[in-house]
């Protein structure tokens, strides 16, 4: 076990929007250390979003991320021989991380040509509060709501 928590490394802001959360998103999107490819996919997706909508593409990305972030999750806890799903509030950094990972996961599962096209479609859907990512968030909230009777087992 660790003696202490490691220091959080600061992320550099991305070149186009000067936003560290974009860099975090690109880091999650990246495969095999190909960061420039991941940046290309992300920027192409935002260009497609800009072409398809009237709003600013960075604003739509932020809105999609906010709509994808869950506020509660369930964790399994064993109490007296039974396992309970206990609803727990999520830390701010974990919310962002989960939201980003879900957006990328469900964009990859979409049908379409190329990752930029899929990501753009998922971002637009999530910004409108629809799509697989938002459905997943609502499903998690429903599960937490159904198990709120076990909230007193929280540690």
Q: Main attributes?
A:
mainly alpha; 155 residues
Describe this entry's structure for a reader.
The structure is a single chain. This protein is mainly alpha-helical. It has a single domain, classed as Orthogonal Bundle (Ribosomal Protein S7). The chain has helices spanning 20-29, 35-52, 57-68, 92-109, 115-127, 132-146; strands at 72-79, 82-89. It has a two-stranded antiparallel sheet. Helix 4 (92-109) crosses helix 5 (115-127). The radius of gyration is 18 Å and the shape is globular. The relative contact order is 0.15.
- In CATH terms, the superfamily is Ribosomal protein S7/S5
Number of strands: 2
The average pLDDT value, as a whole number, equals 91
Question: For this structure, what is the CATH class?
Answer: Mainly Alpha
State the end-to-end CA separation.
20 Å
Do you know the CATH topology? Ribosomal Protein S7
The helix fraction, in percent, is 55-70%
Q: Which class best fits the helix and strand makeup?
A: mainly alpha
CATH architectural grouping: Orthogonal Bundle
Note the overall shape.
globular
How many structural units, i.e. domains? Answer: 1
Could you provide a short overview of the structure?
This protein is mainly alpha-helical and 155 residues long. 55% of the residues lie in helices and 10% in strands. It has one domain: Ribosomal Protein S7 (Orthogonal Bundle), CATH 1.10.455.10.
């Amino acid at each position: 076990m660790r003696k202490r928590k490691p220091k959080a490394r600061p992320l550099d802001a991305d070149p186009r929007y000067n936003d560290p959360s974009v860099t975090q998103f690109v880091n999650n999107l990246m495969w095999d250390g190909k960061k420039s490819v991941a940046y290309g996919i992300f920027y192409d997706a935002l260009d497609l979003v800009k072409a398809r909508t009237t709003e600013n593409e960075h604003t739509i990305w932020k809105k999609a991320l906010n709509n994808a972030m869950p506020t509660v999750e369930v964790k399994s806890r064993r109490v007296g021989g039974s396992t309970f799903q206990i609803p727990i509030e999520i830390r701010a950094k974990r919310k962002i991380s989960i939201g980003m990972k879900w957006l990328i996961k469900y964009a990859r599962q979409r049908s379409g040509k190329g990752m930029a096209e899929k990501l753009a479609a998922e971002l637009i859907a999530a910004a409108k509060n629809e799509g697989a990512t938002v459905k997943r968030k609502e499903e998690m909230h429903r599960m937490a709501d159904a198990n709120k009777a076990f909230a007193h087992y929280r540690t």
